[in-house]
Automatic annotation (TrEMBL):
Domain STAS: 8-117
Entry protein name: Anti-sigma factor antagonist
PROSITE patterns noted in UniProt: STAS
Family stated for the protein in its record: Belongs to the anti-sigma-factor antagonist family.
Superkingdom to which the source organism belongs: Bacteria
InterPro entries recorded: Anti-sigma_ant, STAS_dom, STAS_dom_sf
Gene3D superfamilies given in the database record: STAS domain
Organism: Streptomyces rugosispiralis
Pfam families referenced in this protein's UniProt entry, alphabetically: STAS (PF01740)
Amino acid sequence: MFDDRPAFGVRVHALGGVTVAEIAGELDIFAVGRIVARLDSLVQVRCPDLILDLRPVTFLDCAGLSLMCRLRNRVLERDGRLRLVIADPRFLRLLRMVRLDDAFEVLEDLTPAIAGAAGASGPAAGGGGDALG
C-alpha cells in the first residue's frame, strides 16, 4: 500500500532567548512548501536567534538551500543570528560547492550553541515544543 504521509517534520522549542527548529526527513521542494510559513514566523521578532538543527535531515536539495538563504536574509534584516547544526559531511560539501559555506555559521553539535542559554534560564522554556509534519 502507498504511504502518502510527508517524509519530513519540524519541531520547535525555545531555550532562553534561542529558538531551535529541528528539521527531520527530506528537505526538498515539497517539504519547503509545507514548512516555510512556520519557519518565517520564527524570525518575525526583533533580533531573532534561530538555530536550524539539520542533523535529522536525510536529503537536501536546492529548495532546502533556498529556504536556508531566505531565513538568513530575514534574520539579518532584523539584526538577528542564524546558526545551522550540520553533522552530515555531504551537506557541508554541498554548502561549499554552491559557495554558501561562508554565508552561514555552521556548528557540528547543538550543545555549545545553547549552553549559555541553558545556564541562564534553567530547563527549556516552552515545554516539549511543538511539531509540524
